[in-house]
# Entry
Amino acid sequence: MNIKNFIIMMACLLTAISTQAQPPSLKKQGTATQLHVDGKPMLVLGGELHNSSTSSIDYMSPIWPVMKAMNYNTVLAPVSWETIEPQEGVFDFTLVDAMLEGARKEDLKLVILWFASWKNGGSIYMPSWVKRDFNRFPRAKDSTGTSIEILSAFSEENMKADARAFRALMKHLREVDQQYHTVVMMQIENEVGILNTPMDFSQNALELFNGPIPDQLGQYLKKNKKNITWDLERVWKARGSKTIGTWEEVFGISKKGDPSRRRDYDWHEPYYYTEELFMGYYYAQYMGYVAAEGKKEYDIPMYVNAWLKGPDYPWTGLHPGGGPLPSVMDMYRCAAPSIDFLSPDIYVPHFTEVVEWYDQLGNPLFIPETRGGSLGADRLLWCIGEHNLIGFSPFGTDGRRSPERPMPVSNPLDQLSLTYRLLQDMAPIILSVQGTGQMRGIFVDQDNAETKFTLGNYEITADLYTRSTPVPAGGPLTSGNSRTVNRTVSGGGFIIWLDQDQYLVFGRNLNVRFKPANPNKLPLAAVDNVYEGEYRDGEWIPGRLLNGDETHCSTFSGTGLKMPGMSIQKISLYRYK
Ligand code: DGJ
# Structure
């Protein structure tokens, strides 16, 4: 080997070693933010465990292989303050180490959920020495001055105790995981926010609420006045866009509501909004401090997750108020720069609306909790195509174990699991086009059965592939003695523009049709060829050449693809006149 080749080889080796050594991080690609692990972008195909599963090593040991068999590449798993610091200042990482070992054996990554000061608004995961010492670790108060079992976000003692434990955890992770990168992200707390009261009425909180807004917030509003969330913009501008004054002077005296008639209100409207912003700012400051202390030891991406508002929980106190919803995103951006993004836990039916709401101000999309199954699969595919997804994760993936059903089982027909399998090998191509404008997402259901957009040189229409099943109307099932109902609930997919007249589509329950976007020169389009296939290790492996009944290839049914089940297809079109 000559000296020049030797130098090139050494340089490549050193670059490979140094990117491998970098901890997981977030990087921009065009309009997308991507999670990078071991020097490469990663798509998290995750599943979140039930809350108590990781508190027992024996309980977890048969579950890790099942997670692998269900095609997850990442498990979202809690680590609680009570288990790692049972005595003040005395740490025990036995359960953490067992989790790392269980995940590594199955080649799985972990997102660790830090259950500490708050979980679903309440305070239940702090150690006994915190629980019992309510003088040192004060609770929030309602408007009558009665304590609520929620650690007050306005206590420095609470914040510092939590941050010390979190920092110890991050130090441990640096020591035992920085060469493996099994842990790729951290979730700070879980679904925080004040419950049963619109704000914390403890002494410290009231003084701050009745005083001027923090100078840092005033500066933020001045600097970002054209770049704030649409919820805040509407209210703040209507009050004269002030940057100094008390919370109520700057953001107004909130509209109030009657909780017993909650369903009569439009949850999109801002009720108790000033209280929500106020709580949001101080929750963000607290969690931002915890995250920043942890990052001093081991700097990996950290996010917060929200219990959403909706028809049943229209305002702060009914849902955990001040939690990381887009309506308070600006408070988090201002008070918690160490928190990388805000995530929704989506159990509400208006899934697409929530995702669009979170995709603001460059906030990347990661969905730590939602529903799985076939609807989950369709939503996932849409998120990939339309919102530069970092990752997706249904909740409770280890199942509800009972004596009759001692083990979770992987179901080979589960549509999400099947989708995950196909996506794992396809991830490199998806990640390579994120943020470039070459990809779009599709979601259709019985209420919105068609969607249309232009991508590249074609206008694309996608609609729900309906499958009708005969239903007996009494008597023997004959064609004259049955009626049919549509059994297809939803369809989803994404489409990548590969080149001039070539597209790659991953779809489920779809018809996808193509028309020239600019019909001036050659106004007509037809199918040259369609291959179904799949990716293996990022390589396209073609299968059947689809034609005839398996495509829309004639003028009367349009030009394009039929995707009655789940399918990956590559289409090449041509133009004529
Ligand atoms: C949302 C929480 O974040 C989870 O930890 C879990 O409690 C689920 N709800 C249960 O549905």
Summary: Residues 51, 120, 190-191, 345, 369, 395 surround DGJ (CB under 6 Å).
